Structures are given as C-alpha cells and as structure tokens.
C-alpha cells in the first residue's frame, strides 16, 4: 500500500473541500433557506467538513514519533510557520484596507483575532504542534489503552456535551462542575490517526467506515436544515469541526483513505501529488482570488443560483493552484507557501 500517495490524495481532497466551503459561503448565507441553491450548498458543506480535521490528522500521522526531541521539533515546526503566518496576515490586512502598522491591528487582529477567515488554521496548528510531544508521550509511553481513554474523555466532554448544549439546549451541569469540559477538543485529531493506524483493514470495517461517513453527512445535512429553518437564518451548528458529526466523518474518511488501494494512471497520480504539494499554499492564498473576483465582479447575487457556487469554487481553485504552483518555483517567494 502506497501510504505516502494515500496521504497526498487526502491532502488534495481536503484542500478542494476547503475551497469549496469558502466559495459557497455567500450562497449558504444569502440564498433563501431550503431553496434548491441553499440545499445544494448545505450538501456540499456537509460532504466537505472533514477538510480541516483531515489536515490535522495527516500532520499528526506524519509528525508524532516515539522519541521526539521537543526542542528541535518545536523550533523546526514553528520556524516553518512563522514567515507564512506573518506574511499572509499582512497581505490580507493590506488587501482589506487595514492599518497594519497600528496598535489596534497588531493586538486585536494579529494577536487576538486573524487577518482572514482561513488563517485561524495557523493559530490552531501552532497550538497542536506544541501539544504533539505530549500526545507522543501519552501514546508511546502510556500505551494504546491510555491514549484511547483520553480520546474517549475528549470526545465525550469536549465534543459531545458541547454539541448537545448547542444543538439541543441540553446542558449537563456536572461536566462543568467537575471541569471535565476543559480538554482541548481539537487534540482529538492528534489521537485519532495514532489509534486508526493500528486498526487492520477488512472489508467489513471498510463498509462500516463508509456507513459512518454517510450517516455523519446525513446528520450534518438534516441537522443544519432543521436548525436553519427554525432560526429563519443559516446556522453552522452541525458543521463545527470538533462536534461529533464532523469528528466521525473525518475519522471514517481517514481510515478509508489510509487503507485504499488507488489505481490511478501515472498522469492522474502526478496531478494529485502536485495539488497535494501546493495544498498549504492554496489554503493560504485562495482567499486572495476570492477577494479579487468579488471586487471585480458583483457575484454575490449570482451565487444564489443552483450550482453557481460550485462553478465559482472551481474557478477559484484552478486560479489559485496554477498561481501557487508557479510561485513555489521562485527563490525566496516559495517560503511563503
């Protein structure tokens, strides 16, 4: 099994899903609730919410090792993110017309917020990098059982109970009283790939994983439709990355794709690998294309047509991919991607 290529396929699919979500956001919030365009977007959203968790799990799968030099690991990973983080924050600040040299921007945007919607990922990734050595210790020194125990606690108290409160207004007070809701919910995406890689693949498990993925997508789609109709406005409650529907969908897809046997032609493999190599740059840069297109052409009303957001997302992805693939070849500039 070509593990590295499987991870490349995951990256390619995940970054496509990221662009699809951001390219469809106007339709989700502007189209009439339960219209054809809105339901198509809701389905696309529900099918795509695995995207960021999949990136987190790929990082954990590749980076968490048994004997990690904490100092070297943290220094290397943070150094890799520092320049893109600062550069793209400045780029988006300038594009949005912010005063990037003001104290307000430095404190309220760069430190306490983010310069563009997708850059929250970098803040979260920095935090998860800092926690990876601890997760390594729990998994490799504490053992699989200890790791599973912590994963279950996180899933219950930081994922499931907040979801029940948010979606159904069910509050379980003893969780807060015992401070069991203080587990970092996103850490579950560091534990899951370590646990999943130890699960041997069988046809029955593959069908089970596929069934869980489909079930999670159905829950997201129907739940989002229900809460949005009740609120008379679009609601993303069921899309939250660390809520059970997304966690289950992401874990199931990771298991399936990690164990898949792809039989693509050499050309398709080359294209998928190229997209995977550009995925980080596409993640950072695609909103530049979004801002440019939406300023040149007033497309907001056009995006409420059925399938219009899919077309827009495809154009945004294609332009960004070609630009990033070219820019990654340039000295110095490549460090931003």
UniProtKB/TrEMBL annotation:
The keyword Transmembrane applies. Residues 6-318 form the Acyltransferase domain. InterPro entries: Acyl_transf_3_dom (IPR002656). One of its GO terms (biological process) is enterobacterial common antigen biosynthetic process. Keywords: Cell membrane, Membrane, Transmembrane, Transmembrane helix. The keyword Transport does not apply. Its main location: membrane. One of its GO terms (molecular function) is O-acetyltransferase activity. Pfam families: Acyl_transf_3 (PF01757). It comes from the Bacteria. It is a multi-pass membrane protein. The chain crosses the membrane at residues 12-33, 45-65, 77-95, 115-140, 147-164, 170-195, 207-226, 238-258, 278-297, 303-324. One of its GO terms (cellular component) is plasma membrane. It is found in: Cell membrane. Belongs to the acyltransferase 3 family. This is Acyltransferase 3 domain-containing protein. It comes from Chimaeribacter arupi.
């Amino acid at each position: 099994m070509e593990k590295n290529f499987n991870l490349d396929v995951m990256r390619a699919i995940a970054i496509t899903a990221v662009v699809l979500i951001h390219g469809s956001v106007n339709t989700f919030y502007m189209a009439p609730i339960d219209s054809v365009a809105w339901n198509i977007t809701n389905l696309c959203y529900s099918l795509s919410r695995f995207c960021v968790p999949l990136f987190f799990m790929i990082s954990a799968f590749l980076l968490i090792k048994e004997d990690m030099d904490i100092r070297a690991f943290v220094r290397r990973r943070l150094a890799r993110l520092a320049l893109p983080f600062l550069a793209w924050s400045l780029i988006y600040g300038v594009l949005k017309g912010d005063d990037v040299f003001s104290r307000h921007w430095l404190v309220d945007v760069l430190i306490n917020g983010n310069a563009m919607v997708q850059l929250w990922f970098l803040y979260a990734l920095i935090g998860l990098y800092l926690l990876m050595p601890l997760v390594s210790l729990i998994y490799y020194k504490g053992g699989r059982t200890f790791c599973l125990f912590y994963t279950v606690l996180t899933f219950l108290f930081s994922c499931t109970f907040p979801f029940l409160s948010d979606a159904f207004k069910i509050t379980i007070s003893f969780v807060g009283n015992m401070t069991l809701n203080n587990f970092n919910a996103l850490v579950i995406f560091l534990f899951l790939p370590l646990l999943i890689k130890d699960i041997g693949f069988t046809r029955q498990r593959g069908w089970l994983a596929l069934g869980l993925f489909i079930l999670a997508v159905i829950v997201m789609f129907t739940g989002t439709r229900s809460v949005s109709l009740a609120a008379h406005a679009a609601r993303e409650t069921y899309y939250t990355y660390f809520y059970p529907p997304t966690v289950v969908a992401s874990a199931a897809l990771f298991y399936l794709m990690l164990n898949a046997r792809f039989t693509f032609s050499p050309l398709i493999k080359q294209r998928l690998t190229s997209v995977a190599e550009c995925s980080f740059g596409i993640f950072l840069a695609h909103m530049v294309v979004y801002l440019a297109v939406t300023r040149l052409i007033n497309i907001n009303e056009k995006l409420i047509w059925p399938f219009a957001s899919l077309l827009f997302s495809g154009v945004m992805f294609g332009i960004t991919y070609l630009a990033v693939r070219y820019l990654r070849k340039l000295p110095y500039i490549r460090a931003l991607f």
